[in-house]
Amino acid sequence: MSTASAVPALALAGLVKRFGGTVAVDGVDLVVPTGSFYGLVGPNGAGKTTTLSMATGLLRPDAGSAAVHGVDVWTDPVAAKRMVGNLADGVRLFDRLTGEQLITYTGLMFGLPREQVLERTADLLRLMDLGSSAGTPVADYSAGMTKKVALACALVHAPRLLVLDEPFESVDPVSAANIEDVLRSYTASGGTVIVSSHSMDLVQRMCDHVAILAAGRVLVAGTVDEVRAGSTLQERFLELVGGRTRSEGPTWLRQS
Ligand SMILES: Nc1ncnc2c1ncn2[C@@H]1O[C@H](COP(=O)(O)OP(=O)(O)OP(=O)(O)O)[C@@H](O)[C@H]1O
């Protein structure tokens, strides 16, 4: 292995975050190898979004560190953020801008030359199938269109690491397949993706590595084959996380 690829794309060590009495993230260590397609899965409230927010410099950890390609996110945030494309969950966009303006603005913010930004914006609008809505304010976009324009903004500066919080939520199957193709060729060319998702099928299909997070801790992490250990990721997830009730629901809900 070369020295360059020995430095992980993302290294999280001892990350902790509390909100009042809630420990949202309780000592997360994670190493995302360069060139990997890394899935982060876990039940609702497991701490995925909080972990990814700390990893990308959006939320200051109470303890621990995050480094992107060896650059500390909290002591050298400008250098670290330059390498990251981030699709964050629940972050407000400048939605009075049109989709085209928003992608262009993001590219210019990263200091790209105007000509290059215009070319990339056109490519991204085509890729996301947003061409006919390019001139519409993002405030008037559907949930899936908003997700796609945010993803385009995360890609415009061709970052070395993509951190995507539920990128396929609300996205239609054709767009999802097109985005999947692009992400695959991105990792094949040396880029790294970490993606949080509730779709075990998607993670099993797309990712080479996966971590299962529950109650703010990593239960298991490794290659997808190591983690699923001969069964499906869905089965392993249910086994490790528990919580299946197998109930028929409350009697008042039954119709006969
Ligand atoms: N800003 C906040 N203030 C207070 N509590 C918060 C805040 N953000 C997250 N939490 C709490 O931290 C815990 C982890 O939340 P987080 O959003 O990271 O989970 P998640 O794994 O992304 O969940 P989901 O799959 O439902 O999106 C939850 O108990 C949540 O209620």
TrEMBL record:
The UniProt entry, under InterPro entries, shows: AAA+_ATPase (IPR003593), ABC_transporter-like_ATP-bd (IPR003439), ABC_transporter_ATP-binding (IPR050763), P-loop_NTPase (IPR027417)
Compartment(s) = Cell membrane
In terms of Pfam families, this protein maps to: ABC_tran
Entry's transmembrane regions? none
Provide the topology term for how it sits in the membrane. Peripheral membrane protein
Q: Where is the ABC transporter domain?
A: 10-240
Which CDD domains does the record associate with it? ABC_DR_subfamily_A (cd03230)
Return the PROSITE patterns for the record.
ABC_TRANSPORTER_2
Going by the UniProt record, its keywords in alphabetical order are: Antibiotic resistance, ATP-binding, Nucleotide-binding, Transport
Keyword Zinc found:
no
Top-level taxonomic group: Bacteria
Q: By its UniProt entry, which SMART domains does this protein fall under? A: AAA
Q: Which GO terms describe its molecular function?
A: ATP binding
Respond yes or no to whether keyword Nucleotidyltransferase is given for this record: no
Question: What is the name of the protein in this document?
Answer: ABC transporter ATP-binding protein
Organism whose genome encodes this protein:
Protaetiibacter mangrovi
